[in-house]
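Sample intake sheet
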Amino acid sequence: MAFWSNHFCISAGKGELARMWAGAFEREAIRPHLLGRFADMLKAVEQHPAMLFFLDNQESLGPDSRAGQNRKRGLNENLAREIMELHTLGVGGGYTQEDVTSLARIITGWSFAGRNARNGAPGSFVFNANAHQPGPQTLLGKVYQDDGVAQGEAALADIARHPSTAKFIAVKLARHFVADDPPPALVARLEAVFRKTDGDLKAVTLALVDSDEAWSAPLTKIRSPYEFLVAGGRLLARVPDDPGFYLNSLNTLGQPLWAPAGPNGFADSNAMWAAPEGMKLRLDISAQLGAKLGNNLDPRDLLDLVAGDAASTETRRTIERAESRQQALALLLMSPEFQRR
């Protein structure tokens, strides 16, 4: 889930509406489609008010629309550009600036109902025909007739099954779950499954889990702060009474909840999370976790749970020589076996 939430990210830092919708966006647009079709997730994401607000599509007016002819505000390409560059085709995925503009025209009118709106429940997706650019549009060599909201939905469905989308998603999945420099053979297999199954994410996920590369390679990926804190809480089998500890820790470690700095999300690389200062901060937070949640837990048993036979002799000795149970737990949380996945 964390992968897709970061892939289709919004930022709560956008403003009050973004903060209000951030959790709902993840719950409503992403979770229901984790093992469904990519095209369905894409549609749910791009029509969710959180994404529309984050990338200002409610401000976009077709130049020849009824609303556009009467106002100085015009076309906004933010959402269209990020759909193609970050959500589907990727940089170098075969689209042009003209395609970005065409998609922006196609999705004019995609908006959300306001507090006192008569066209839908507050915060729900609405199609504003007055803001929609009339007429057919050519996108990636195909003409889409003006069928209102269906024009944009048809365009998204075709982009979702585009070969460049299959490759882009395959690379990102392999990079996230296996290695910063993903094995080309694994990427090719994931891409093939995506294309063969029309973007069936369950089939793609199973292909990833069943791959030799996912299990035979040494643990190379550093856990992100989010993954580190969630894994730490699960390992210690308790959740702090005050969730503020987790939220503050995410802020300290540079991954504030639902608040990346831009639409490209948080970087998915070891270089982002393995800096010395970041590791020092993790050590401080590990000590706090051990002190808060470590009562009545044997760190040696937890090491067996974390790593089993893969635990190194050095890690076992370090934990056994700790001066206290809390220190041993902190050292366990900072061990290579726990910090990597």
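Comment: Residues 2-160 form one domain. DSSP finds 19 helices and four strands in the chain.
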